[in-house]
Description:
Blueprint: E1 3-7, E2 11-16, E3 20-21, H1 23-39, E4 43-47, E5 53-54, H2 57-71, E6 76-79, H3 83-89, H4 91-94, E7 99-101, H5 104-119
Parallel strand pairs: 2-4, 3-5, 4-6, 6-7
Antiparallel strand pairs: 1-2
Helix pairs in contact: 1-2
Amino acid sequence: xxxxxxxxEVFHVINIEDSVxxxxxxxxxxxIVNKKQTENKLSLVLNFSHVEEIDASFLTxxxxxxxxxxxxxxxxxxxxxxNHLQQELGIDxxxxxxxxxxxxxxxxxxxxxxxxxxxxxxx
Length: 123
């Protein structure tokens, strides 16, 4: 699995550079995130802008990542996931709690707003 990781002050952005994501890659993504979060527990943005096809097993991984981030009091945002893929995977119905944004900059905004809310004790 090809990814590019960009670490900001309070979050990691993981840009997935493969166009087709298989079940094996879902497990690889979980390993990558776990390793990165072991080094430094930050909020997480997953950028799917290059992705055209996703195996349904990715739903489980996204759900697991969302729960892990919540347990660590950190944000989890999926960005640039096409409407087609959202509908195909049923994300709009199955994962209402997900933060899904059209662009990475909007994902950054959500992470920063949630970070401010946590600092102010508003979560």
